[in-house]
Specification:
Chain lengths: ~40, ~325
């Protein structure tokens, strides 16, 4: 296995550590279906 | 695009760039010439000319986000300029890779420039690719000359999608300016929709531009000369775009991003229900997208469950 491949794999592992800020992560949570702002038909 | 996916793609692209990719039209469900005109190059039966516009949709979650960002729907999320050189077809495009970063939003870690790839490579990473002949009167030689010049001067990719600053260019901005060099008026940028949830994400990404140039606005008045898709038949392409349009219509300003996308270690993902709706829609006539959305999206018992099963209500 070449050194470059190892570097790419290492960088990929580090990349998996990315975390979203709390406010962005919150927006990526779904809305419970019984709330009026659930994905609806306009 | 997640860091992991970007790196995997970067590795794959580097690896593949040393290989001669061979495109096999027979392996594609759609590989249609839609013009009787003669081209500068016969690309597996497609009549191609330098200076034509190439637009595409990758089918990925971030591509759908690009389609949903503007107030007007756009089926395509990416654009480039076609160039025939030494009997081979290339595409000039604005492209960036995401590099590892321990702080800041992904946009701070995106680096790229105007690059040139073969049309084979371009098509290979897209779900749907369409090639358009610019409206009559556009000087295609000037279009492609602009594209080559921006490649040669190493113009950087603009990860913040700021149309007001042309020192760095994002993909559709680059294509719009290339077409302008050929005499096509610049398109009116599409306002970024006033969705509070989207705004939170865009603020984090430092995307402050009030409007963006969409690939859809570049195809207005242009003639589609080729349609290519490995997975979808031409009719299914229409239905797929209709499904995306229906999602755009439903993603009103009060909607949360989380109703369509989720985040995992693999980056931005479509929610399984959305993915299933899009998949199902491609099997039906495009006129039925709204009805299908009622059936499929209205039937989630557990919208927050990755494993929730769809109840079609039938």
């Amino acid at each position: 296995m070449s050194r470059s491949l190892l570097i790419v794999l290492l960088l990929a592992m580090l990349g998996g550590c990315i975390t979203l800020p709390r406010e962005v992560a919150s927006e990526l949570q779904p809305v419970p279906r019984d709330r009026p702002d659930h994905f609806h038909k306009p | 695009m997640s860091i992991v996916r970007a790196l995997v793609l970067a590795f794959a692209a580097t690896w593949l760039s040393g290989c001669a990719t061979t495109l096999t039209p027979a392996a594609y469900r759609t590989f249609d010439a839609e013009s009787v005109g003669e081209g500068e190059l016969d690309f597996h039966g497609l009549p191609l000319q330098s200076g034509q516009l190439v637009v595409s949709d990758s089918g990925e979650a971030d591509s759908l986000l690009m389609s949903m960002m503007g107030e007007q729907y756009t089926p395509y999320g990416h654009a480039g300029i076609l160039s025939i050189e030494a009997g081979k077809a290339y595409v000039y495009e604005g492209y960036a890779l995401l590099w590892p970063s321990l702080s800041g939003p992904p946009t701070d870690a995106m680096h790229g420039h105007i690059r040139r790839v073969t049309l084979d490579q371009y098509i290979g990473r897209q779900q749907v690719t369409a090639i358009f002949d610019p409206e009559p009167g556009v000087d295609k030689a000037a279009v492609v000359a602009f594209a080559r010049a921006r490649h040669e001067d190493g113009t950087e990719f603009d990860p913040y999608f700021d149309w007001r600053d042309h020192t760095r260019l994002y993909c559709t901005e680059f294509a719009a300016l290339a077409l302008q060099a050929g005499g096509r008026p610049l398109p009116t940028p599409v306002r970024v929709r006033d969705n509070a949830s989207l705004r939170v994400a865009l603020d984090w990404l430092k995307v402050q531009a009030p409007a963006i140039v969409t690939a859809g606005s570049l195809t207005e008045g242009a003639e589609r000369v080729a349609l290519i898709s490995k997975r979808l038949a031409a009719r299914e392409v229409d239905a797929y775009f209709a499904a995306k349009r229906e999602l755009h219509r439903r993603f009103t300003d009060d909607q949360k991003l989380g109703n369509i996308w989720s985040w995992s270690w693999r980056g931005l993902r479509l929610r399984p229900q959305i993915e299933a709706f899009i998949e199902a829609s491609s099997l039906w006539p495009h006129e039925t997208a709204a009805e299908l959305a009622d059936d499929w999206l209205g039937a989630f018992e557990q919208p927050d469950s990755r494993w929730g099963k769809l109840d079609t209500g039938r």
